[in-house]
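ARCHIVE CARD
Drawer: 12
Card no.: 0347
Subject: one protein chain, sequence and derived structure
Cross-reference: see card 0346
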Amino acid sequence: MIGWMSEFAAQGLLVTDENLFIRSCNKWFEKQSEKSERELIGQNLLEVFADLKTRGFDRYYRDALGGQSRILSHRLHKYLLSMPPSTGVATFAQMQQSARISPLFEGDRVVGTITVIEDVTERVAREMELNVQLEERERLLASEQAARELAEENSRLKDEFLASVSHEIRTPLNAINGWTQILLNSDTNAEKFRHALSTIQRNVASQVQIIDDLLDISRIVTGQMRLDLHIVNLADSIENAVNNLRPTINARQIKLIKNIESRPTFIMGDVNRLQQILWNLLSNALKFTPVGGQIEILLREVDGFAEIIVRDNGHGISDDFLPFVFERFRQADGTSKRQHGGLGLGLSIVKNLVEMHGGTITAQSDGKGTGANFTILLPLLIQQDADETVESVNSDLRNTERDFAGVRVLVVDDDADSREMLRYVLEDSRAQILTVGNAREALTQFSIFKPHIVISDLGMPEIDGYDFIRQIRALPSDDGGQIPAIALTGYVSAEEQKRVHSAGFDIHVAKPVDFYKLLEIINNLLRQTDRTGRDER
């Protein structure tokens, strides 16, 4: 029996006497330990395998000599004797073993020890692989769960956003529609008439802002947002933004503190987009600052950057929402019970515009009720002698000529109301106006009227604005082929603007138009083309 076990056993067998001198071992033990039986017999176990004592396993052999059996698990001990791992298993540096150390009896007397070693390397490797697979499965399940939760969160945000869009669009439409019906269906005194028009104008501006924000987000997402870079004095941009919001500031009795360095702070930027950044930040501060509160706007130069800080003492930003304050569609309260309107796009647009200018923006708040700080850093323009040049340009813009006496303007638009409004505004500036309802009539009247400038819609029947301006540009210069031309249209995408310029228009102006801005554009175009010979009438 012993001979059979020595030859064919799948475990290692090692027998010692009561002094732990090796008496015998089987073939398995010889093969795995790489020591022959001849080398081992008569040798002291703790001397041949010295790490048994180093690792404290000698006490198990003393227990065995005292009549107690000890079991060593691979999970706790890894291995009893240091042996190479099983062939084909490269996971471990040592063979993984389970072992049993037992007393060897003759009758009732302990005469030595017997050690049985089982190689469990392959089993342990398979268990580890299985554990890795289980962990990967759990990771995938967690990832799927996270993806599902993210999709559900995005769906919730989308639903809240669409509900907000509907609310924000319908609310001003309700006021516009209501006051329009009042004006059309009742006799109104002058005071009510002015109030109605003021309300309509305010709500139209609100609608335009919503549409502009949606279009800007679309341009940002598709990478079509472009900047028209010029030298800009940030102090002027801040002053303009404040002036635009002055009625709201006064109505809410907000104390506005401006700390702006006396000397000009120049950057290279898009004046309209910078105005949008500042307007959004100030509007955001106004929205969340209670009546009688305080807003501070600061401008200074710091280490080669222009630093703008907009600080308020309003509602503040909660700790859990602060990391998401610049994410689009995110609002601290997106439910129907929210106290403040908006689509949750403004600050996202601000962040993108600031970064397009090579700057950074950060938000800081100590929590609800503590107010909020928004800090912008924009690279300064390094140009020592820019002051006089830029001040001269800004002065020209502020003093744009509004008297167009002798200037002939051809207006082409198939919408009668738009033609009427343009006629009223331009005639008020003493320009001579010819309005026509289609491009065919405009081409007929062009050589007769001989305009100094053309303002044309794009979407018109039969001949649209693009074909109209192409036919004008085909004329010889002496016949008006190089006349300044403005495209006045509701098509405002980046592609549309490129198409407008490619067709031959000098400038693209989006509807609804700021008529003061339109007068400024007309004046600049006339000066750039050095138009003279106005009719002295």
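Annotation on reverse: Confidence is low (pLDDT under 50) at residues 332-341, 383-400, 531-537. The chain has four domains: 2-119, 149-221, 230-397, 400-528.
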